[in-house]
Every structure is written in structure tokens, then in C-alpha cells.
Amino acid sequence: MSHLRKVLVTGGAGYIGSHTVVSLVHSGYQPVILDNLSNSNPAVLDNLRDILQQDLIFYRGDCRDQDLMHSIFNEHQLSGVIHFAASKAVGESVEKPLLYYSNNLDSLLVILENMDQYGVANLVFSSSCTVYGQPDHLPVTESTERKPAASPYGNTKKICEDIIFDVVQSPASLKAISLRYFNPIGAHESGKLGELPIGTPNNLVPFVAQTAAGIRDSITVFGDDYNTPDGTCIRDYIHVMDLADAHVKSLNHLDQQETDACYDVFNLGTGNGNSVMEVINSFQEVTGAPVNYQIGGRRSGDIEQIFANVEKAQRELGWTASKNLQQALADTWKWQQTLMKSV
């Protein structure tokens, strides 16, 4: 095992992080997982071991813990870092901005300091399409102007991108990529890994799945009077395993860069937008499970529509989304049924 290239995966027990751990192992990397389990379940680690049929290197702790970070960087000869760990609920960030700035900014700063100290050059950063706000033109390209963030969460992603950019310009040797995700959905095909919302889901697809499963009475569609074909908001929904694959391709891409320092950003989406009602109707068709929904008023902070231009990732990373909306919804339902059996 020791000859495998080790990659630190912060937030590696979370939704996207755990699926990326699977992709890393399948691609010949050895993940070193760091997670404080504040927004994930320890059972995820057991499920990962089950899927991968091997043990995992896992540290329970916080990225801001300097002593812990020193010991991890000291003990493992890391070839790169994928940084997922962050507080991520938009609504909560409005209520608790200081928590979000402290956690999301300080964790990145500590990681960058340790990367510099221990000579680890490659960083893949988990960013978000929230940096674009409500764009003036669709689809969104990487050169689309970043708008003022609609929430402290979104602002932390913008600031983190700026911090990484500034470090790359400095004498420090850093090769970094920020991946701007659109809307991750779906689950691992085994049904053993998926999105595990704590409390009421903030995202559409887990809420739809929980409603179909009878955990929620109904789902409210926030607004049906938008300027879209069916009046409901449009998003670019991407399968989490496609997203995981893009992180591995990003690491490989950084490895191939012969310069000491570089920075790039990539949109990760399907390039297609689907409305809220399309998602609900597709879910019902794919699963045969009825979803009880009602139409409500618009929700403040929601943008009308956004979807990605993904040509740059196709061209430079050799990556493209291979799974469609129906596949993602079928995998979500399989995962939801697994969760129900385990209750």
C-alpha cells in the first residue's frame, strides 16, 4: 500500500468527499481522510470500507487544529490535498456568519500553511456555482463575472478562491484548481453511500426522496411564476460520481503541469438545466413512487435559473458528465431505501 500516492481528503466522510474517496481508490490513490463528523455519520466510513474492501486511513478532527495538521503532514508523504471540509448551509450562514467565516476561511489558511511548510504542491478546492449569483447570460462559463454573493456561505467560497489565487502569485509553490460545482445529486450505485442530510434537507432531491418515502408529508415547490418553461426554478443537476471523477482528473491534471505554480477554475455540471417540476416528475417516473407536492410562494435568495458551460473541463481535464438525471434519481431512491432498512 505504501507505494500508492497519498492524498489528504478533508471532509472525506461527507457527501461529495466520500464518493471521491471511492474514485481515488479506484484510480490508484490512497486517501487520508480527515473529518470532524459534524455534518456526516461515522457509518459512512464502514460503508466505504465495505464498498472498497479495504481499511482506510481516517483522522477525526478539525482542519483548524494546527497540531493535528502537523502530525498528518508529518506522518504521510502527501502528493496532494482535496479540500471539501466547510460549513455549507446557506440559511445557517445568514444566521451565523462568524461561524462560517471562521470555519471556511481558517481551515483553508491552515491547510495552505502546512502545504507550504511540507512541500505539498497540489490542491483541489471545492468551490461552488454560487460565486456567479444570478448570471446575466446562460450558460455560465468560467469567465462569467462573479457576482456579489447572496449569502455568507457563497462569500466564503469567493474569498477562498481569491486566497488561493493570491498564494499562487506568491513565491510559495502551489498548483491549484477550484472546482465550481453546480447541483450534486445521486448516490453510489451500490446503494451504500449517498447524501445524508442531518435534520430537514436543504436540497431538493433528498427532500423529494424523503417525501416519496413517507418521512416528509409533502414538498413545497417555491414559486411557479418564474420566467422558465414551467415557471419553476432551473438548476444543473450533476451525478455525484461524475463529480468525484472530476476531482481525480483534476489531481492528474495538476501532476502534469511542469510549472511550480498555477491556478485554474472549472465548472462541473452537465451543461443542461432541469426545472424543479421536471425533477419531481422524473423521480416519479423512474421510481414509480408518488411525490406529494404543493406550490408555494417564491423563496428569498433563490435565483431563477443557472446551468453550466462545461467545455473547458471536457477540453482540459478530459472530463465529461456521463450519468443523466434519471440515473441519478434512481440511485438516490436506492440509497433512500437502504437508509429506511437500516432505521
How would you explain this protein's 3D organization?
It is a single chain. The chain is an alpha/beta fold and 343 residues long. It is 41% helix and 18% strand. The protein has helices at 15-26, 43-52, 66-75, 90-95, 97-118, 152-169, 204-212, 240-256, 276-287, 311-317, 325-342, and strands spanning 5-10, 29-35, 57-60, 78-83, 122-128, 175-181, 183-185, 219-222, 234-235, 237-239, 262-268, 274-275, 293-296. The strands form four sheets. It has a seven-stranded parallel β-sheet with strand order 3-2-1-4-5-6-11, with helices on both faces. Strands 7-10 form a two-stranded parallel ribbon. A two-stranded parallel ribbon has the order 8-13. The longest helix is centred in the first third of the chain and has 22 residues, at 97-118.
